[in-house]
Amino acid sequence: MIFFAQPVPHPAQLTIDFTHPGVSVSPNLYGLMTEEINYSYDGGLYGELIRNRAFLDDQKQPAHWSPQGQGSAISLEKSGPTVARPMALRVKGGAANDGYWGFPVTPRTDYQLSAWVKSDSTGPILATLESVSGSTVYARASLKGVTSNWQNLETVLKTSSGIKPTTDARLVLRTAPGTTILLSQVSLFPPTFKRRPNGNRRDLMKMLVDMKPQFLRFPGGNYLEGNTLADRYAFQNTVGPIESRPGHLSPWGYRSTDGMGLFEFLLWSEEMRAKPLLAVYAGYALKGEYIKPGPELTPFVQDALDEIEYVIGGAGTKWGAQRVKDGHPKPFPLECVEVGNEDGFDKSGSYEGRFVQFYDAIKLKYPNLKVISTTGGKDWPGLMFPMVQRSPDLVDEHYYSECWDMMAMATRFDGYSRTGPKVFVGEWAAHDLVAPWAGENPNGPTPNMRCAIAEAAFMTGLERNSDVVAMSCYAPLLVNVNPGGHQWAINLIGYDALSSFGSPSYYAQTMFANSIGNQTVPTVLANVPMQTDGKRSQSGLFASATRKTATGALFVKVVNALSTPQDIELNIKGASVDPTGTISVLTGDLKAMNSLAEPKNVVPKTKMLTGVSPSFHCMLPPNSISVIKLRVGR
Ligand code: AHR
Predict the structure, then answer these.
(1) Residue 475: CB within 6 Å of ligand 1?
(2) pLDDT tens track for 406-416
(3) How far apart are alpha carbons 310 and 235 in whole angstroms?
(4) Backbone phi, then psi, for 261, in 5-degree steps?
């Protein structure tokens, strides 16, 4: 790839103008949004490998469990050890679990097995990680010390070297000959990120850390709201010992174990060095149930205050003490609380009243917290539910837009009012041929290069307007690519039980978030060729520039949405520039995607730039996203 171009007669020009002041870049501009969708946690980031570990997915039959061996039998009964674990699996002979589309078997790996067990016989239980056919045993160990009382027994299954990584595996528990056991909560964890017990999958965490997110918005999304009031995200049920968490039905059609509970969301943020951004349940469920503002809403407001107390309360407070007991004496660095999710869908018009009640209670107890509203649209014309009684600190705007429209939104915030609330683009993503809510995507559930280009164009707009756009996060973040694993058609990072990959959009996000200054430098594009879709036209190039005032680092981002290479003349006005720098480029066919089979089909490549001067040329490949890093003096 050639980066320096022979000047063409009328190249596009990008002036990076240090003679005019820029604006401060929000330190929280890039973060992550997450919820339980597409098997994001169970069968995804959360390390647990046993599917239906507590036999609660279906109380009529032991889903994902099957009898193993001649004369074996398994059945469910209501005789579990705790209130939150009412079910037990009676096993005669052997029982196998099929995992989340298999198990990740890798060489020289320790798998921590635990199971609540009781039996009239004391014989050991043989545990094997073996191929689905049963012909290959990858690891074996015994659970010993079984008694007639419920106990949580533990052992480690270790694979040897020389095993070829595979998902073709199941876990089998076999009883001593002729005996019957009762099982409750069977758990198997591979080594987790930073070896945290009940922790997260390593490969996915590495990818997330590489994104340098400044915050993590959780727990949703629709997942916060639930289809019904009964299925809302109730944080109290998601903290404390795992066996005390009942789990709940998510609006995405499957049951959540809540192994990834409030505590784990907080630890996950901490492990990424990101701040938690907590969304609290605000009294509206997806199918339309809502709580009227007033006394009926008071308990829900109290729940939110309790939840915040869990996150930042001192050891002397009820919920702060619970956090300490759960293992984290230090409060977490909470700055923002979001009240609800997409409450513009609440056509009863109750949101403003509900928001006022939450806002006042939160501000009274925690005046330093920023409160986010969710009817969106700071400057949307004709917004159905504008907030007039209280001014939120931020408004959450969601954009799931077709690529052309997403690119056109690169200038959306240029004209936004600079007074009043800041904007939090709390969910956004571009889509190409398939709308994300279609669920299934014949091309696979991750975006292609065209989406990445549109998103990068949009991000140049976020950066240039970072004085008003304070925060942003793509959604959804994670998808299990197995058939039946996804409910949303376009998602950032894909995986199965064993491996993972970032979409081109993942790389665009990572490139942008890793190269950002604390101050914008005004940019002007001239002589820009237009792009057209046959009916409409818009700019073919998009750009932003930010600098780190402390170091002189300058980050110039240029998106070439055209299908031809573009010679661009960069003019740095009002500053000297070092003669060397780097350029990282993400480019590929518009339809190009990454996948489990081809995880690195589209990835950024970085090269040195030499001969940089206040006016120099760069050749931008067709369909490309470039991040140019330079050093300037003034
Ligand atoms: O990101 C998927 C869904 O899109 C979220 O749950 C919801 O907030 C939005 O409508």
Answers:
(1) yes
(2) 999 999 999 99
(3) 9
(4) -105, -170
